[in-house]
Structure prediction request, 266 residues.
Amino acid sequence: MRDVTVFLCPKCGSGRALSAHMIDTRVRCLVCGASSVARGNLYGDRDWERVSNFYTLVKIATSLRCIPTARQWRLLACAIGRSAFDWCRNPWFRDALQAAERWADEGQPPRGAPQCLGQLERMEGAAHLDLRPPNWYGSEAEFTFQQQQEREQFGWIALARRAVSDDPRLYQSDITDGNRPLATAFFRELVPNPFRAHTWNPNWSVSTTCELARHIYADRNFPVMPILADALQDAGCEDAYVLDHCRANRVHARGCWVLDALLGKS
Prediction:
């Protein structure tokens, strides 16, 4: 696939692919309607693995019409939550992630999801209160730093709330500085490189590979992914991108695009 010039709206951050002749002209954002000079950045195949900014990665994908589904957004929130906040033992957080994963598999909200959402919204409201003492005389920078630390500590609330919402898309306020690298890594896990034309060969979906994929997905036994690569190769798969994804030392999660292809999920 060709390289693409992506315009990131300076007002709302939404992405749009631009034609070469549009550079340095004015362009209107299709989301918020703001008009600005179309200074875009050129991205290509190799940049997909190099980009470190989560939002830029999302905009590249959407600009190339590789738009994450609600299921993928839901599983992305769960993957970040389980990894970045594995220490969190709040029962509403844990119940929300389990409910969201069931929602992703069943296609509809399971029993208990509305209650989780209500509790998380109440907790989020309390966490975002301005706790500045009425007679605060410290520096604004110190108070801002303290607020940022609290957002990092309670970031699990926003992720869990998104996971059990009707609209599970993650926004800038949902990703903290601390979990942004994980968000970027998991996004690449769920969304394959949109610059590469990739067609899944149904001949690779034999009983051995499908059973192994079901086991990995159900038990979250992601260390077995290299064995899945061997099974795919035995089934005739010589696609280096597929095999390298399974064998690479990287984070894996439910929603992995290779597992989804084998299990017929989207």
Notes: The two ends are 22 Å apart (CA to CA). The chain has twelve helices and five strands. The mean pLDDT is 84.
